[in-house]
Amino acid sequence: MRWPENAQGWPLAEHSRFVLSRPHRWHVQVAGTGPTLLLIHGAGGATQSWRGLFPLLAADHHVIAVDLPGQGFTQMGARMRCGLDYVAEDLLALMTSQNWKPDVLIGHSAGAAIALRMAEQMDAPPVIGLNAALDRFEGMAGWLFPLMAKALSLTPFTADIFTRTASSPGTVKRLLASTGSTLDAEGIALYRRLVTDRTHVDATLAMMSQWTVDSLVSRLASHQSRTLLVAGASDGAVPPEVSRRVASIMPRASFVKLDTLGHLMHEENPEYLAKLIRDFVADSA
């Protein structure tokens, strides 16, 4: 498959390929040799979020980064398969179709939930969660937010309206600042490309409307994967307490809190995260 016109200058495009594994046509980036690491971005992100970490890990690992259905450059083939269980199932089917056998699953935010769900369907490989989104919304938001997301995803032109209102560089910069992370100009520009892409926004809304982690969280006390949950002290999207609390109930989990870093910690300081991941992979081996 040829690159779309809006993909010019996309980070690490030299490592990109497109794979048809039904129901989606996946955009993946693959490089390196060694233990296989699967990188799963969070809702609303794409492979660009790994642009700093990917080449560092690929120096001594086989690294696979993937765009989630409809997000980035993955073409969604089934709109109703954007929830946690379906995405994990379809990602596992993609891995099987390419004979990729991840030794460690690494997920950011919602990607951490996907990694843990995949691990349940596999032979409990080690998992690393970066600012893992593993909690339900509190109070009114617990029922209001999913309903709003579902309504938004089903309303015609909603994605168009969002892309227009969020298209200014200042708006994108403020949105990113609310996560507690400080990105460079390139990082801000790449997220602006995503939030002004109607297809990407529409897929993110579909994922939000179908998302629930309640069933997964209820099983974590018996989850057998060795797990490292890393939280940024300045995370404005997922409180660090979520990872600490989840680590306390998982039988083989540990928790690390990083000062000064926010929700996009792997983009703020990829060198430190690469070292943390290497140490964990080596210990797991």
Could you list some keywords that capture this structure?
eight-stranded mixed sheet; 12 helices; 285 residues; single chain; globular; alpha/beta; 8 strands; 43% helix; Rossmann fold
| Helix proportion range | 40-55%
If you consult CATH, what is the topology?
A: Rossmann fold
Shape: globular
Radius of gyration from CA coordinates: 17 Å
What name goes with the CATH superfamily? Alpha/Beta hydrolase fold, catalytic domain
Oligomer: single chain
Q: So what's the CATH class?
A: Alpha Beta
Span between termini = 36 Å
Poorly predicted runs: none
Strand arrangement within the widest β-sheet reads 1-2-4-3-5-6-7-8
> What is the CATH architecture annotation?
3-Layer(aba) Sandwich
> Major beta sheet, specifics?
8 strands, mixed
The total of beta strands comes to 8
Number of helices: 12
Query: Strand-residue fraction?
Result: 15-25%
Entry summary:
This protein is of the alpha/beta class. 43% of the residues lie in helices and 16% in strands.
